[in-house]
Design brief:
This protein is α+β, with helices and mostly antiparallel strands. The protein contains 12 helices and 22 strands. Helix 2 links the parallel strand 1 and strand 2. It is globular, with a radius of gyration of 21 Å. The structure holds adenosine-5'-diphosphate (ADP).
């Protein structure tokens, strides 16, 4: 049962949504909320962060600190996150006191730890790559020396990994020095044909809606999503299976709000769950410009227990992340912006980070076109011509 009032009593200038995290996802959530005349309060270290310019109120504090989260949360009507690595003890306490929190801190605790997340899939008989848990880098090396652990494999630290940090691919003995010293999971190297993602949303009264599956390609140097194609070039049967899987995961996690489900399509056409993120996600940025409802609006609808919006696509699109140039660090300049804005169907989003760093996500562009192939051509043009330098 939802603990918040129905829509006609809910949307008003006093209604406060609190978001832990003030990066670009917080900024885009605040932009979506601005259409509804509700307040967005943000907790993060510094008001110069991206969400600082778009929220109703910025509270300086640490979302990993119990007291900061507790004090911030207790005045909010609904509390949510834009990053999963937050102090969940404070959220559990607020939940006990009756606060509406989406995603639930219990689900967050499972998702934050890749070991618990994998164990959850296994317990629920949801398809995912096999895995083993290790306490440390030394324990992994000892298992290799004993013949208990064979190569190749992928090591992922259980906590605090993001955007490919905390992931090491160990193919041969010369890679052993890449092993990280932290509690980790080890997975076999999956024979990946495509990486796809499905963003799904659930509201407390039970409705679940999924966006069409998208296909992601990666920048190998940065280990970040480079292009995102919508719709994915997969068969209708695979698309339906991916969507069904995403629906099952959000249902079994009992989680409300958005869930981004990252999937591997294997060479033999099996679908495996890689990992999930319980919040708006890079693989849903195109929805702002190319779908009936953006992922940000969908998250707000879901956490406020309002009817979920249509997830239909208006047009084919390709999203490209705009990364800081490799050899520049300092105040950001956007070179080539005019030429890129002149491209038909280009929607450019700059996050407003004051400092650029090599491969830092500084913005994204969504290219709208009648076909994914045409959008991709324009996305490549943007990637070549928009340079973020100092
Ligand atoms: P992050 O939390 O940093 O996004 P992921 O678990 O998504 O970490 O891994 C990052 C990337 O590493 C994936 O998108 C994929 O390209 C690759 N990868 C992860 N696990 C495997 C695996 N078991 N086999 C092959 N490649 C993998």
């Amino acid at each position: 049962m939802s603990k918040i009032p129905p829509a006609n009593q809910l949307i008003n200038t006093d209604f406060k949504i609190g978001i832990l995290g003030g990066g670009q996802l917080g900024k885009m959530l605040a932009l979506a909320a601005a259409n509804w005349d509700i307040q967005i309060h943000i907790l993060d270290k510094d008001p110069s962060f991206p969400a600082g310019s778009t929220c109703s109120k910025f509270v300086a504090g640490d979302f990993n600190n119990y007291d900061d989260v507790y004090q911030f949360g207790k005045d909010m009507d609904v509390l949510t996150i834009e990053i999963e690595h937050v102090n969940t003890e404070a959220l559990l306490q607020l939940e006990k006191e009756g606060k509406v929190i989406h995603p639930s801190p219990t689900a967050l605790n499972i998702i934050k730890d890749k070991g618990l997340q994998k164990a959850f899939y296994q317990a629920q008989a949801l398809p995912t790559a096999a895995f083993k848990l290790y306490e440390s880098g030394a324990a992994i090396k000892a298992a290799i020396a004993d013949g208990q652990q064979s190569l190749p494999f992928v090591q992922k630290t259980r906590t605090a990994g993001y955007d490919g940090k905390g992931v090491a691919v160990i193919r041969q003995t010369t890679d052993l020095d890449k092993i990280m010293d932290a509690p980790s999971i080890i997975e076999p190297l999956v024979d990946i044909k495509k990486e796809i993602a499905v963003i799904v949303a659930q509201r407390p009264s039970g409705q679940i809606e999924a966006f069409p599956a998208v296909e992601m390609t990666f920048n190998q140097d940065a280990n970040l999503v480079e292009f995102l194609l919508c719709p994915a070039d997969i068969s209708p049967a695979i698309a339906a299976e991916a969507e069904q899987l995403a629906r099952s995961v959000i249902d079994r996690l009992g989680l409300c709000g958005l869930l981004a489900v990252e999937l591997f399509l294997t060479q033999d056409d099996r679908i495996l769950i890689n990992e999930v993120a319980p919040r708006p996600h890079n693989s849903g940025h195109h929805t702002i410009d190319s779908c009936y409802t953006s992922q940000f609006e969908q998250h707000l609808r879901a956490i406020m227990d309002l009817p979920l919006g249509s997830t239909k696509t208006k047009m084919a699109s390709v999203m490209v992340n705009l990364l800081g140039a490799p050899d520049h660090q300092g105040a950001a300049r956007y070179q080539g912006l005019a030429a890129c804005l002149a491209v038909e169907g280009s929607k450019i989003h700059l996050y407003g980070k004051s400092v650029t760093k090599p491969y830092r996500k500084m913005g994204h562009a969504t290219l709208l076109a009648p076909t994914v192939a045409a959008a991709m051509q324009n996305a490549k043009y943007i990637q070549q011509h928009l340079k973020i330098t100092t």
